[in-house]
TrEMBL record:
Ni(2+) binds at C64, C67, C358. Pfam families: Complex1_49kDa (PF00346), NiFeSe_Hases (PF00374). It comes from the Archaea. This is NADH dehydrogenase (Quinone). Keywords: Iron, Magnesium, Metal-binding, Nickel, Oxidoreductase. Mg(2+) binds at E45, V325. Fe cation binds at C67, C361. It comes from Methanococcus aeolicus (strain ATCC BAA-1280 / DSM 17508 / OCM 812 / Nankai-3).
Amino acid sequence: MYEGEIAIGPIHSAILEPHRLRLFIEDEIIKDAELTIGVNHRGIERLMEGLPPEKATILTEKICGICSHIHLWSAVRVCEIGSDIEVPERANHIRVIVEELERLHSHTLLFGHAFEILGHETMSMRAFMLREPIMQTLFDISGSRVQYSCPIIGGIRPRCDIKDSQISAYLERMEKYEDALNKIIGRTINDPLLVSRMKDIGVLDRKTAAKYHALGPTARGSGIKSDMRKMGYVPEYDCFEFDEIILDDGDVYARVAVRFYECIESVKIIKQALKELPSLPEKFYNPNYEIKEFKPIDCYTEAQRGQQYYTYGVDNEGRVRQAKVRTPTATNLACMEEVLKDYHVSDAELIVASCDPCFTCTDRLIILREQNNK
């Protein structure tokens, strides 16, 4: 029997962000695993200290290119809650639309990478083709495909307001996206080779998911309710009808399937928000806000990968203090590190990818905390 170690990373062809995965094996079966992150450290929270909220919030958008909107929206919400700033309903609806579009592009991106790891290049390219109209819609709304800079304190930027003349075109794109997604779902669940590579692989049972505090689709794939939008933490979603997708199997297939069906729910939310926009007040920004001094405020949102936590306070000089950001990937990766055991080496990167890790989000303050501990 061969016993040894296989090291993967810091570069992998399908998971683009750098990480290092050490697999301790017997023959080709994983007996233990160690996942190392920290390559992308930039110290965002330290950079936020002492900045005015208007500048500090914009800085948070640089944390991640895939989930830039939810970072900025979370940071803006902290200031709005702490200073009792009223946000026009139209602005909240557009923030929701952009966030759900971002969820669609993020989940569809994962589908592309997952199919690539599975060796199905055709389905991978089709997933990226499916994602393109979503990226085009984000570009039409914001003028950017990566960092949209949509929310600002008190509302949204004027360029991000959606005109009545654009609504019908966006609704049509959502219809086409949903039809194409359903075809990909059908092709996936009816392909015995694809299903065999995902079914009963990387099983994260409910007990282990709770122990390691799994979040988002990773938790919901193991039967745990975890959607902040449904738990009342994001009241901007209270006026929309949508379902929380929960599956019990806990394997790679379940985690991918949760995201498939979450895309359908996101389309449902976007359609509702677009159809309600014409009846809302034209105002999309509250220019008369005043930032008050406040102690650190807790703010939870539902990012594409799960619960996202933001907190900071503002001192009497109007400067940000005690900024802290917690993203869902850290605990989800801890779950994946645990469930890798007893599976085949060829399944390792697929299992890691199934929690849709964002290493850049996770690496914000790793080095700084290690230095502080010394």
